[in-house]
Design brief:
The chain has 286 residues and is of the alpha+beta class. Helix content is 43%, strand content 15%.
């Protein structure tokens, strides 16, 4: 069984100093909390170093380096533009990235769930992203149906907490909803609360484009169920102009991703348990 590489500050320091000596004098400080895909270090005042934790994240550095500089000028919120890609070395097996550091705090439900301004800003960001007219690329998003087996298994595991009938009913409805009839659009692919930054009480940036791809915009609607309340969700939906079928598929994406995280991490992490419980409950509510 393949094990994930151990990543510590000493390894990150050696990688940076060897491959990018122009940054060798900058302080390197591990950032916490980080996500499940990368170990993150702040490099000086203006840069970040991100090293994949597992093989599932190893394509992100090169994908972000290719596409985020093209997307950034078209988006109303800041995004992390990569400035260099590092090579495997010193026993670390994968490409890694140095990007511009974005100041801000991770968005919270407590701060923004009731903000209609935030709901409109989120809709504006997605409208701009979904309208981006970049050339077709080999970064196709996954259709919702590809999550069917895993989601039904999660429903079996989590059914006692949320109700098997309710979970299955929503999932069946999402899969049965008419497919996206328009051309494939650019999607963030992992658009949830943890990938939003705030500054001065307002949304300031969107991070972590590992799920960036071209496909059904419904996958990006999960933010409506991870961050917003019923009232601000209605504002978001109106501002984005979402039809009923797309909204139903979006609820399915929120349910599938929430259940996956719940059964994987909730037992060991109370923070994830609270976040995913809310996400699943809000998706069921609609």
């Amino acid at each position: 069984m393949e094990t994930n590489p151990a990543v510590d500050a000493a390894l990150a320091r050696r990688l940076v100093d060897t491959q990018f000596p122009r940054w060798a004098g900058l302080p390197l400080i591990r950032y916490a909390p980080a996500g499940s895909d990368h170990v993150i270090f702040r490099l000086g005042a203006e840069l970040s170093v991100r090293l994949p934790r597992h093989a599932g994240a190893i394509e992100q550095a090169e994908k972000e380096a290719e596409w985020l500089p093209r997307l950034a000028p078209h988006l109303p919120l800041a995004i992390p533009v990569p400035v260099a890609i590092g090579d495997p070395d010193f026993g670390y097996p994968w490409p890694w990235a140095v990007s511009r550091w974005l100041d801000g705090e991770v968005a919270t439900v407590e701060a923004l769930s009731g903000s209609h301004d935030a709901a409109v800003e989120l809709a504006g960001f997605l409208t701009a992203l979904h309208r981006f007219d970049g050339e077709t690329a080999d970064v196709a998003g996954r259709p919702l149906a590809t999550r069917d087996t895993a989601t039904r298994a999660s429903i079996e595991q989590a059914g006692a907490a949320f109700g098997v009938a309710a979970l299955t009913g929503l999932w069946d409805s999402a899969l049965a909803a008419p497919a996206w009839a328009g051309p494939p659009v650019w999607c963030h692919g992992d658009f949830h609360t943890g990938n939003l930054l705030t500054a001065g009480g307002r949304l300031s940036a969107v991070i972590d484009f590992g799920g960036l791809g071209i496909g059904d915009p419904a996958c990006d609607l999960m933010i409506a169920f991870t961050l917003l309340s019923a009232k601000t969700r209605a504002t978001f939906r109106t501002a984005l102009g979402v039809d009923e079928a797309t909204w139903t598929r979006g609820r399915g994406w929120a349910l599938a991703t929430g259940l996956n995280a719940y059964v994987t991490y909730a037992a060991a992490d109370p923070r994830v348990a609270a976040q995913t419980t809310r996400q699943i409950t809000e998706a069921l509510a609609g």
